[in-house]
Amino acid sequence: MRQRIEHFTLEMLTWASLIGITLFVVFLFPWYVAENILRYLLMIASVLAILWYLKSRRLFAESDIKTKEILDKQRQISRQQKTFDIIFNNAADGILILDESQKIESFSPGMEVITGYKKEEMLGRSAQQVLKFKGDNENSLLTDAMFLPKNIRKKPYIKNTLLTKEGREIDIEASYSLIQDAVTQKPKGLAIIRDVTYENELMRRDKEFIAITSHQLNTPLSIIRGYVSLLREGKAGKISDVGQKYLDETYDSVKKMISLTNNLLSISRIEQEKIKLEKEDVNIKELFTRIEQAFGPAAKTKKIALDIDPKVDRLVYCDGEKIFQALSNIVDNSIKYTKEGSVKLSARVSGGSIEIKITDTGVGIPEESIGMIGDKFYRTQEAINIDNKGTGLGMFISKTIIEKHNGKLSISSKLGKGSEFLIILPVK
Amino acid sequence: MKKILLVDDEQAILEMYKASLGGYEIELARNGSEAIDKANKCLPDLIYLDIIMPEINGLDVLEKLKKNPATKDIPVILLTNLPKEASCQKAMSLGATDYLVKAEVEPDMLVKETERIVGK
Description:
The structure holds 2 protein chains of 2 kinds.
Chain A (H helix, E strand, L loop, with lengths): L1 H27 L2 H60 L3 E5 L5 E4 L1 H7 L3 H4 L4 H4 L1 E2 L5 H8 L10 E7 L5 E12 L6 E9 L1 H36 L8 H31 L8 E4 H18 L3 E4 L6 E4 L1 H17 L5 E9 L2 E8 L6 H4 L10 H6 L7 H11 L3 E7 L3 E9 L2
Parallel strand pairs in A: 8-10
Antiparallel strand pairs in A: 1-2, 1-6, 3-4, 4-5, 5-6, 7-9, 10-11, 11-13, 12-13
Chain B lengths: L2 E5 L3 H10 L4 E5 L2 H11 L3 E4 L8 H10 L8 E5 L3 H10 L4 E4 L5 H12 L2
Parallel strand pairs in B: 1-2, 1-3, 3-4, 4-5
Helix pairs in contact in B: 2-3
């Protein structure tokens, strides 16, 4: 509209100027001169009139297009708003938006179902005060996370146990983002909250099933292994060479099955957080001696040197059995995946930590796979090529045990050259 | 000859351990009550005791044996399928000599452990 007024004013000024010039010519020149000048002026005016007409049509057309674009945009915004409203009001997951002072600005019907609170009693209230989580210091976890800039977030979601209005405990998973108000540009927190209580219950039952099955399998497997051992030792009379060979095969297979069920049991206990550390002062030298006793024969059979640094003599406050298990899994792998050369075990104290290093000259780990070593069931193709019966559980157990001790396992490797496993454990 | 009492509700396990421990006099008990009776009657030099058994479980048997002046000095080794973190601490606090997990113990290891405690 403003554009049209400006345009009209300009045109009026142009015509006023033309009339002024005509009057000026009529009064200043004799008629025969003025007549010619006026004729030319009339011609110029006609041309200008045609140009003005064409220009106006174009301007009006442009103005119409712009008006149409604005209307389209408004309709689009309105459609988006409606779509957002439909999602907001119908999503089974809860949508929560907090303003910059962490007060609840939007509380979707999904949130009402999950928490048991009504929108009316939540809007405008501090999220930390009204959304209660299990645990004394947990209430601020979600709100703090929602306002963290993307680049310093540790992970894009949190898992926690939320207390509903009725005091019921529900497991939730919340993904969150830091957003900006479209008008004020002020920061806001957005969270999509999902009730995962049922899924967690199913997972818990699965883990329990694995634990019970593994446990129940252990008794018959131990019996089979025991009797096969007695037969191999000749306690039931002399066995033929072929019979001995069959018994050896049976014995090896049963041992593998026992190892697998034990690994599954360990994982099940780790995942159900039933694993407890029984810490005491443990001399690393004793652990190394046990490793030598346990793996010396296997290394000798493969003609690999098992070099154990005898100098280490240091007490570490840890669960000796668990750390032995963690070391055993790594050394077992190193021996298994080394065709020739050596497996070395050394340790040194650095500050308040002990660094245990296991170095082998084995097949190595491809660079892109190093980050996945320690993931449950993960095995590299190189490992599968050598032993296709492994489970990919040993490194997961080792990593978990080390992390339970507030330690760290880091791996460096060169494909075809060997690997180095560095365990850092706090001494106290 | 040294006397060993083996306690387990699984007959096959009892027979297997009995066969492994050649050179010793072996007594067998299939449940907790029988274990307490036999321990009192034959006063063994060592008891291998399972935990999960009907009626009286192994930890209760251990507690009763350690409270009884006649049996309190008999070394008791828990031999069970329960992982160490489940019951080891409690067993040791009740006076167990050791805690072994069946899946980790082969017959020759059982022999070595027996020799360590009571001699050959």
